[in-house]
Amino acid sequence: MYPFEYHRPISAAEAIDLKRADDGAQWLAGGMTLLPSMKLHLAAPTRLIDLTDVEGLDAWQIDNECVVLGSMTPHARVAESVELGAKIPALSAAAAGIGDPQVRNRGTLGGSIANNDPAADYPAALLGLGATIRTSQRDLGADEFFKDIFETALGHDELVVAIDFPVPRRAAYLKFRTPGSRYALVGVMVAEVHDGVRVAVTGAGPGVYRETRLEAALCADFRPEALQGIDVSPEELNADMHGSPEYRANLISVLARRATAQAAASAS
Prior knowledge:
With 268 residues, the chain is of the alpha+beta class. The protein has helices at 12-20, 34-39, 75-80, 82-87, 89-96, 101-106, 109-115, 122-129, 142-145, 212-220, 245-267; strands at residues 5-7, 25-28, 47-50, 60-62, 66-70, 132-135, 139-141, 146-148, 151-152, 160-166, 170-177, 184-193, 196-202, 209-210.
């Protein structure tokens, strides 16, 4: 390892001031990506700002129309909350499939989306559900928040405070896991929200994105049969030891149909 400063502020204002004072500083949420990256010398922050004690970042608010989760909410709490599971079961299911118990107990919602791993589950959940990311400076829709591989719209001193999820009419998330890591080789969130249907895909390409042709078909007819015959393009999809672009394209189609069937069944 190498020398760095460690700070544990108790307020968002203090945390932001520490970040602004050092261009090499990084937030530390659950640390499930950052700490291994530091051990491998893939990241070298000059200052770690631990958000564990920052007041209010683990607060929740749940009502009939929306669910607001603080950015420091661990995955395990999302997965295990009975109240949340009753409102948005697809979100709880997505959290339950993240990593292993150790990762789910330490990793956080805000840390995951700020990292924006191209095979992570939460970006697809946020994009599919049409969530809003509340930061220390503004509110950002999921469509504008996620930019590219490991890239978001966040500024250097911009802190994710909470995520606002509108309660969908029906939704489901399914993924095909890569061996060992349990990241999504392909993951698909299908959600019918107040203004239509959203289909978000993770793992298949360089970042989370929406399959608009599948959305249009499901807006007209929310049944898995409506997706038959719609070919997902393999262009710009990933190719690696786990699967070709064509394989991933086929997985998107299969998972989208299965997620649609699951969402339809859950609402009946």
